[in-house]
Amino acid sequence: MKKDYDKPIFLDVTNVASGDQAIEVRYIGEIKGLCDEQAFGVLSAHGTEEASASLIAFAATTDIDQVVFLTPRNTTKYDHILENNSVAILIDNRADHPDSINQISALTITGTATILGGGENAGRENSEKLRELFLEKHPNLVEFAHAPSTVIVVVAVSRCVYVSKFQEVFEWNKV
Asked: pTM of this prediction?
């Protein structure tokens, strides 16, 4: 089926230079806004033999240093994170702008995932704070969040790549 949307503003990739504080403030604000506005993202994880992509409900800390999601233990994403804790999360707003490719923004967050809740890595107080952060954004998932098989996964964000206006790219290195 043919989709009807506007023509792209940028045809080639336009890298937005970091180092200019006003530009950084603008784009970091847009990144935070996208994380606040969108409830779901796509987690990319890679096990020892294959990659997987999974839809996740997520919440991010206000400084975007951490992204939190929950998963049952008996999932491919859980197994892949145990095998290889380097992950990426894609968050976008394409559903909000079906008629304009130039208004769509996408954010790829890369980082290191740690599984909390029921394991030796879990600091009980920190786990509860992260679960509360998640539930503030997703109150309808309270039963899932407290299920015995559910674990908390926290991603320590190392890099954000924000794409807007089809090809305008801003990179934010967090470490």
From this structure: 0.90
